[in-house]
């Protein structure tokens, strides 16, 4: 409202306005109104800007780094070196927990690879202790996954490798980090992404962290390759409530998939312990997180679960849950094989 119009409203004496002034007042407010209106031009700018943002986000979402080989000092994570074991495990075929493919073929392939890495690692200051565990037990699944039930298991398998300093005994070490993958698969799937890519990633981490020319790592890292996840998180439970190494574990990283390759997404963290999230953001080469996953998973809407819940609820330790989520329609199907994982997915997942 113009000053003239305001005065006119307050004081009736201003009601009589000379003709030329009246016109002037009308013109002013008309011009202002026109300026405030959204015209076709504004909408065009808005639509073009939205499209540009969408195209850039899709491009960034799809872009993956070039797969690299190891460098001279062996300090670089290498997808090219990590791939052969991934293909070998995937090519075994579906590996349901309890099947020969899972309990013998996959276990032996993993043990063979670890035993190949061990002598090289132990040339330097590190030790790599390799174990198998065959736990049996019972626990309750809360009203979450399905409708809540008690479950018992017998003789499921775990392959565990502990990387530490040669100068420390494991029982003297008071803080260790657990990294978990599972080598069993859904009955119809080769499990290339769910979850062998994570097991291949862990093997590569051992090769890089255990480099003999490097000083020993400050805290032990326990690599758990578990053999019964798809059948309701059994093997992770067997490890975290029974294995003697569980006592020193202060945090865990669970590596999962609900798709095939792409960018690994951090979708659950905690409980509490902000420091874990901070150290993730500081250390990881390509951080990528979303709070949406945590909301969905912890609300119980999504009918699935990961070993994250077992470590959190039965181990009472905080941790991170990461998953490959691209091409979700391949998840748990015969298309989830090593060949169909986009090149660069593993290179990008480097968490060393
Ligand atoms: C448990 O499984 C392993 C390998 O799958 C086998 O060698 C062992 O005999 C089994 N133990 C029992 C008690 O069934
Ligand atoms: C991925 O890389 C390998 C070589 O490392 C190549 O043979 C293969 O064709 C590539 N796959 C795609 C989809 O580009
Ligand atoms: Zn899985």
TrEMBL record:
Key words, A-Z: Endoplasmic reticulum, Glycoprotein, Hydrolase, Membrane, Metal-binding, Metalloprotease, Protease, Transmembrane, Transmembrane helix, Zinc
GO MF annotations, alphabetized: metal ion binding; metalloexopeptidase activity
Domain Peptidase M28: 158-349
TM annotation in the entry: 42-60
Annotated GO CC locations: endoplasmic reticulum membrane
Taxonomic superkingdom: Eukaryota
Cofactor(s) the record lists: Zn(2+)
Location of the protein in the cell: Endoplasmic reticulum membrane
SUPFAM superfamilies xrefs: Zn-dependent exopeptidases
InterPro entries registered for this protein in UniProt: Fxna-like_M28_dom, M28_fam, Peptidase_M28
GO biological process, one term: proteolysis
PANTHER family documented for this protein: ENDOPLASMIC RETICULUM METALLOPEPTIDASE 1-B-RELATED (PTHR12147:SF11), METALLOPEPTIDASE M28 FAMILY MEMBER (PTHR12147)
Similarity comment text for this entry: Belongs to the peptidase M28 family.
Protein name (database record): FXNA-like protease
């Amino acid at each position: 409202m113009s000053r003239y119009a305001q005065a006119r409203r307050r004081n009736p004496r201003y009601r009589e306005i000379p003709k030329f002034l009246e016109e002037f007042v009308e013109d002013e407010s008309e011009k202002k109104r026109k300026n405030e209106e959204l015209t076709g031009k504004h909408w065009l700018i808005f639509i073009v800007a939205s499209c540009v943002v969408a195209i850039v986000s899709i491009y960034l979402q799809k872009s993956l780094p070039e797969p690299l080989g190891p460098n001279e000092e062996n300090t670089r994570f290498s997808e090219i070196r990590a791939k052969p074991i991934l293909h070998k495990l995937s090519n075994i075929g579906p590996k349901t927990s309890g099947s020969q493919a899972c309990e013998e073929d996959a276990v032996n392939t993993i043990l063979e690879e670890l035993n190949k890495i061990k002598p090289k690692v132990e040339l330097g200051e590190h030790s790599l202790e390799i174990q198998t565990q065959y736990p049996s037990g019972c626990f309750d699944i809360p009203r979450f996954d399905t409708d809540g039930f008690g479950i018992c298991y017998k003789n499921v398998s775990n392959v565990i490798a502990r990387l530490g300093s040669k100068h420390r005994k494991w029982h003297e070490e008071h803080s260790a980090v657990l990294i978990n993958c599972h080598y069993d698969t859904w009955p119809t799937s080769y499990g290339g992404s769910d979850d062998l890519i994570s097991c291949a990633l862990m093997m590569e981490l051992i090769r890089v962290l255990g480099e003999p020319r490097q000083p020993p790592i400050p805290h032990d890292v326990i690599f758990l390759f578990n053999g019964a996840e798809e059948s309701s998180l059994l093997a992770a439970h067997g490890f975290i409530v029974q294995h003697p190494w569980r006592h020193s574990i202060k945090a865990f990283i669970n590596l999962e998939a609900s798709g095939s390759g792409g960018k690994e997404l951090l979708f659950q963290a905690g409980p509490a312990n902000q420091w874990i999230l901070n150290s993730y953001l500081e250390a990881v080469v390509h951080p990528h997180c979303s709070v949406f996953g945590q909301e969905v998973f912890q609300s119980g809407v999504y009918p699935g679960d990961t070993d994250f819940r077992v470590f959190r609820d039965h181990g009472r330790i905080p941790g991170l849950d990461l998953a490959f989520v691209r091409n979700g329609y391949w998840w748990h199907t015969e298309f989830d094989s090593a060949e169909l994982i986009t090149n660069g997915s593993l290179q990008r997942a480097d968490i060393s």
